[in-house]
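pinging the channel bc i need a second pair of eyes. not urgent but kinda urgent?? the chain im working w is below, pasted from the shared doc
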Amino acid sequence: MRVRLVAMPVISVAVGTLLAFSAGTAFGATPAASSRVSPRVMTCAGKVVFEPSSYVISCADANSGLVAAHWTLWTSSEATALAVYSANDCTPTCAAGKFQDYPAAVSFSAPKLTKYGTLYSQLKVLYLVGSKVHSVAMTLPLRPL
């Protein structure tokens, strides 16, 4: 996945807009608890990680993911971050498409106890395209793929 970072002022401005659409989620509420080791998330490569700075969302083709994630909260029930959502525009095809980067607010939630430890099972990404908020929500892997 090609990574192009969005300037932090753009993310800062976008966060205000995203927060209005994320009622009930504590984006930016408290600093992340770095000493906490559980829950974690399973990556597409089958590794269990804590506060990843990047995360591939679409495991099959790596056509979307998170980069430059800054974790603002990591608790036993939810983790939140500000990040860049990078997605292939698939124009004219996914093989020939270009990656587009968008400021995003991210949350992992719904922890589940697995044989790999406690893993978050849900992902939600709110991202800005111009001034319009879009979202991606999905179930996360709970075992190696």
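so Strands lie at 41-42, 48-49, 55-56, 64-74, 78-88, 99-114, 117-129, 132-139. and The chain has one helix and eight strands. — does that match what u expected or am i reading it wrong
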